[in-house]
Amino acid sequence: MASIRKRIVNGKPVYDVLWRDPKQRGRTFPKLAMARDFKTQIESEMRYGSYINPTAGRITFFEYAEKWRLTANHRPTSAQSVKSAFLCHVYPVIGDRALCNIRPSHIRELQAIMLLTLAPSSVCSIRRYVSSVFSAAIADKLIHENPFSTVKAPKVEPKPVFPITTSQMLSLASSIMPQYRALVFLAAGTGLRQGEAFGITLDRLDFSRELVIVNRQLTPTGEFGPLKTASSYREVPLPAPVISELQLHLSAYPIVANGLIFNHHNAHTPLRRTSFGVCWRAARNAASLSSDIGFHALRHYYASMLIAGGASVKAVQSRLGHATSAETLDTYAHLWPDDDGSTRAIVEAAWGFAGISGGGEGLPSCEIPPDADCCEPDLYDMWYPQI
After folding, report:
1. C-alpha–C-alpha distance, residues 113 and 387, integer Å
2. Helix, coil or strand: residue 385
3. Domain check: are 216 and 262 in the same one?
4. Distance between CA atoms of residues 159 and 165, nearest Å
5. Less crowded by CB within 10 Å, the N or C end of the chain?
6. For the whole model, what pTM was predicted?
7. Are 179 and 289 contacting, i.e. CB atoms less than 8 angstroms apart?
């Protein structure tokens, strides 16, 4: 499959390793042993399908990443996020480099530059997408290994959620434009994500069963799209106050052709995050709330109500559409009440606390006979050295 050819260059022997893939390839070594090792490596790679054309990885990261991005099966919101992240943060640093020339040191440099302006959690999100590009390049036999494999991700410190209060939620509902008052109550009373709430149409409200059916969302482009994960598809109970607010909204703002419950306040067009954001910030300021309180705070508020009311982890997970209970606990574990008192009472009840504290009546005797040998040297010597 490969051969070695000896040549004399400037009076010294050199050794060419020649092979075809199907074009004729070659590499020159100053010593025969090095040529033999490389010949063995090439033949092994070609035999077992791990061979990579030396020129294959010369495509730039920008060229290959753009092909990957445009063919990746991303949700519309994710696709926009990836495009923005690559254009703003990734391409300026490694976009012009050939895939085969990108080293772990370049990835460390990329992460360090991103950390100057982005939170560690955001850097980790971008890192996952960029790493996926290299994984795809490996599958396409353009490079041998992923340069991310030896580079640690930035440490993300968990930030506990501090939900808004009921009075703050009501202040938001009272301060926001009348067209969106019911939207605040819907999100606060069901925990729907922003895109899920924006995409609710009349046929998704089942007032007879007191449920809202969540099976699609409104994308940033104003079109209906799939939900975040398979577990996001769900039916959420509609509390009576939410039903009342929705009915008042429907009587004041009749459904238009697109069927959406909530539309742009100046036109019968789908609600966009940018235009709604202006209304949200105005309401937030009027309610004297912190600037870091976004629409997602209503989802956290809903979860905190369920937890305070005694809902189980599984129930909260189901209502929020989380993929796993671990996701729910990672976000809201600190909101569940402290179980110290209840677990203490369980142990005391199981042990018959009154009997133990009264002298141990009813328990088996464990007195040691006076003539007993309390030290057993053979066992002591046998086990002590191993402790």
Report:
1. 50
2. helix
3. yes
4. 18
5. C
6. 0.69
7. no
Q: Tell me, yes or no, whether 33 lies in a domain.
A: yes
CA 207 from centre of chain = 34
> What is the tens place of the pLDDT at every residue in 254-306?
888 889 999 988 878 899 888 899 999 999 999 999 999 999 999 999 999 99
Number of domain units in the chain: 3
The token duo for 385 is 């050295």
Say how many C-beta atoms besides its own lie within 10 A of residue 294's C-beta.
Answer: 14
One-letter amino acid for residue 276 of the chain: F
Give dist(CA 321, CA 235) in Å, integer: 9
Measuring CA to CA, which residue among 44, 66, 73 is closest to residue 137? 66
Q: Does one domain contain both 47 and 72?
A: no
Same domain, yes or no: 42 and 69: no
Six-digit token pair at 306? 């369920």
On whether both 311 and 188 belong to a single domain, the answer is yes
Cβ atoms within 10 Å, residue 196: 26
Cα(189)–Cα(241) distance, integer angstroms:
8
Residue 360 in any domain: the answer is no
CA distance 143 to 67: 16
- State yes or no: cis peptide before 22, omega within 30 of 0: yes
CATH code (residue 124) = 1.10.150.130
Reported as a single tens digit per residue, the pLDDT across 158-200 is: 788 899 999 999 999 999 999 999 999 999 999 999 999 999 9
- Most confident region among 78-82, 226-230, 296-300, 377-381 by mean pLDDT: 296-300
Q: What is the CATH number of the domain that holds 222?
A: 1.10.443.10
Query: Token match 């677990």: residue?
Result: 343
